[in-house]
Automatic annotation (TrEMBL):
This is Nucleoside-diphosphate-sugar epimerase. GO terms for molecular function: aldehyde dehydrogenase (NAD+) activity. InterPro entries: Epimerase_deHydtase, NAD(P)-bd_dom_sf, NAD(P)-dependent_oxidoreduct. Residues 3-214 form the NAD-dependent epimerase/dehydratase domain. Pfam families: Epimerase (PF01370). GO terms for cellular component: cytoplasm. CDD domains: SDR_a7 (cd05262). Coiled coil: none annotated. PANTHER family: PROTEIN YEEZ (PTHR48079), PUTATIVE-RELATED (PTHR48079:SF9). Gene3D superfamilies: NAD(P)-binding Rossmann-like Domain. SUPFAM superfamilies: NAD(P)-binding Rossmann-fold domains (SSF51735).
Length: 302
């Protein structure tokens, strides 16, 4: 298939691009700069210039493709509501462009559901709707098009998509631990995060493109729920630092922007995803990556 990928130069998107190309698909990656275009082309894909704010460019990329994999998102925590509205507009424009053609539209989402404290399954619908909701309500926006000639699929990624080079949540926790001389967790550390290795996540996206039915939700989750105090302990043990609790009211001051997430439960089942896609995670666990030094450069100036 000829696949238009947004976020093709990102942490997950670059791995997805490699996975698609390795299995015979043609990739056109959205690129907002000359540097990004060069990075896309260096992987063997074609570059399509544009950005999430350039709706005409998104429409043109989607119109020319057999499928769309939308992985880009503006993670601007200083204006998260604005990022959600941008997402809503971008997804709306691409869906309107391909509607009626039965083309796949795969969209990156998360495990946030309001169902804190219980295992989220693929049958659980997202409660978020509308441009002013989390991530612009884009998961429901996409899945609502499943009955309108779009093979829409929600890709729900674990909180930690880990591996060497990851600059996400675990890298930030490692950076904070180095700054404070101790690896912290929020409250009693009983909150849990799901995790998946980057290569396993990329393979899941490719399988979802090839197999997932319209209207489905798939969980890019290998480890369904790791306790936050165990994550903190793994970081602390590797760095030779103590592990300490941080009061919930002090979490944002201690951890920065990630403090609002680290004390939340984000756990999910992968049973239905494995069954439907024939997907079996084979990559290292999060704790194996931490122990192997995947985050040693976190906080080190580039």
């Amino acid at each position: 298939m000829h696949v238009f990928v947004t976020g093709a130069t990102g942490w997950i998107g670059s791995a997805v691009t490699d996975e698609l190309l390795a299995h015979g698909h043609k990739v056109v990656g959205l690129a907002r700069s000359d540097r990004a275009a060069a990075a896309v082309e260096a992987r063997g894909a074609a570059a399509h210039r544009g950005s999430l704010d350039d709706l005409d460019s998104l429409a043109a990329g989607a119109a020319a493709a057999d499928a769309v994999i939308h992985l880009a998102f503006n993670h601007d925590f200083s204006d998260y509501a604005g990022a959600g509205r941008t997402e809503h507009a971008a997804v709306t424009r691409m869906l309107d462009t391909i509607e009626g053609g039965d083309r796949p539209f795969l969209l990156a989402s998360g495990l946030a559901s309001g169902a804190t404290g219980r295992l989220l399954t693929e049958d659980d619908a997202s409660p978020f709707r509308g441009a002013d909701s989390m991530r612009g309500g884009s998961e429901n926006l996409a899945l609502d098009h499943a009955g309108r000639g779009v093979r829409a699929v929600a890709l729900r990624f674990a909180a930690s998509v880990h591996g060497t080079g990851d600059h996400g949540f675990v890298a930030q926790l490692t950076k904070v631990a180095k700054q404070h001389g101790a690896s912290g967790y929020v409250g009693d550390g009983s909150s849990r995060w799901a995790a998946v290795h980057r290569t396993d996540a990329a393979r899941l996206v490719r399988l979802a493109l090839e197999k997932a039915p319209a209207g489905s939700r798939v969980h890019a989750v290998a480890e369904e729920g790791l306790r936050s105090r165990d994550i903190a302990a793994a970081i602390g043990d590797h760095l030779g630092l103590p592990t300490v609790p941080v009061a919930p009211e002090d979490a944002e001051a201690h951890f920065g922007w990630i403090g609002r997430f680290f004390g939340m439960d984000a756990i999910a089942s992968n049973a239905r995803t494995r069954e439907v896609l024939g997907w079996e995670p084979t990559g290292p666990t999060l704790f194996e990556d931490i122990a192997a030094g995947a985050y040693d450069l976190a906080g080190v100036p580039e």
